[in-house]
Amino acid sequence: MRQAPERVIKRALLDTSARSDTPEQIIQRRALVAQARSGDFEALLSQSLSVILHPKPQNDPAIREVNVRMGLTVGVDGFARQVEALIPRIDSRPSLPAISVPTPVLVGDRDPLTPSDLAEDMVVAIPDAHLVVAPECGHVSTLEQPEAVHRALIEWITG
Q: Could you state, in order of their start, the residue ranges of all structural domains in the chain?
């Protein structure tokens, strides 16, 4: 949006924040990468589900399996690159009012990483935005509540 706004006709924001990381978050992210590199990556992936998922699907074997499989497919180095890519991102809040395209902001009702108050901040700042809260959902909305995400995206695409 900042580089070529004329090329964007719609935008959806799912389980995200416009804020940059705090110093504490940066420390946590780097500790997570160090843990991934020095230990049992599969166990780390499995353990992290208790932090990112809503309590209801935490023991769902299908959701657990797909999350762990995705992480193992990305691998430790890919995981480290993804985490390091998040650290230097800028605070996008000042540029949110310039977004002039329809923008649903979807968040799980129990997202511990990007809670609904951060989503609400984006909705207030983006002129043509609306909030969608996925029920019984943590940070992985596309896997935890795929029907709710599907409905929101179909409404956005056809609206």
A: 5-19+92-158, 23-86
Statement: 5-19+92-158 belongs to CATH 3.40.50.1820: yes
Closest CA to 132 of 99, 109, 100, 157: 109
Q: What is the pLDDT of residues 6-45, one digit of tens each?
A: 999 999 999 999 999 999 999 999 999 999 999 899 999 9
SS3 of residue 106 by DSSP: strand
CA atoms of 18 and 1, how far apart (whole Å):
13
> Hey, what amino acid is at 102?
P
pTM listed for this prediction? 0.90
- Nearest alpha-carbon partner for 138 in 75, 66, 48, 68: 48
Residues facing residue 131 across a β-bridge: 105
